[in-house]
Model the fold of this input.
Amino acid sequence: MQKRKIMENIYWMGAIDWDRRLFDSLIPLPDGTSYNVYLVQGSDKTALLDTVDPPMAGELLAQLADVKKVDYIVSHHAEQDHSGTIPLVLERYPDAKVVATPKAKGMLMDILDIPESAFVTVGDGETLSLGDKTLKFIHTPWVHWPETMVTYLAEDKILFSCDFYGSHIATTDLFVTDQGRVHEAAKRYFAEIMMPFRTIIAKNMEKLKAHEIGMIAPSHGQIYDRPAWILEAYQDWVNGAPHNVVVLPFVSMHGSTRQMVDRLTAALVEQGVRVELFNLAVTDIGKLAMALVDAGTIVVGVPTVLAGPHPLAAYATLLANALRPKAKFLSIIGSYGWGGKTVETLAGMIPNLKVEVLDPVLCKGVPAASDFQLIDQLAAAIARKHEENGLR
Ligand code: FEO
Done:
């Protein structure tokens, strides 16, 4: 695909990765992704903002065929999907300088073996004139690594945000055309890589408030030409209270845990609490991560295997602990055959979660009427806690 004009002397470049289905050997990409690169041509100097994942380097180099001069390669983020082709671009433009935060410089030298002499480091708020266009660099750590920054192009009111506000969607649409689709993909992306760093991201968002943002151009997915809604969505995901929702990842081997899960779901719905179920034997973990953004309570449904939690439930618990959602309550339900340390093991896996643990309910074998009563009591306790905490 050829480069595409966004505004006068500002172009989209990069690659659309229609076939990619997994990121970091972990994150599902049901809709592929894109690696967006932007070319900003000022009256004096030209800057290339980010590059592409190395397997797609050929596409970027072909788009650069008629670009005679690149003075600066701005690297917002050292992760290879954006930085990996910098060495090849430097080969094409040996006089270009790589513009990065001091922390990114070190990481790029480690990851890509770029020589120190190729770098210009920029402080938070520093500007770089291209002539009639001015790039302002704003340090925004942890979107998604500690070295990340964004660029604000003052004259055109464009925020080049890299991973921040991005979404994994492969499409030929340059700008957002289906807000619902992008909202879901952006929320999934936030959940998977930024949710653990909400406190710092809230500070980054505060910093950006000083700038009039007419357009957000991320490095994955479509460009926001009317960005108000994605800025509002991030406010909710980062700063909003959890919702009146129970997220219930579970696994069942012979149906007993499933009976407990179904009973709890029905009881919660009767109490006016929304439930999102995820059967871990078949679920897309990206959807589970996305649901955790809003969860008021997490309940893990788990059978005991070899005296401990089923490994799929342990994996989901480990994931929830890493993602640090803002849920306020947590419980465990399930079944066991003869004994074990399922509850103790799972409870030891959530040191990052600031949750109140509600009494677990584990049954021996198939649940009896008395077990269902305890499940009903758990549902009532969750509903009461959500009410007391004003979760809507
Ligand atoms: Fe799109 Fe964190 O790289």
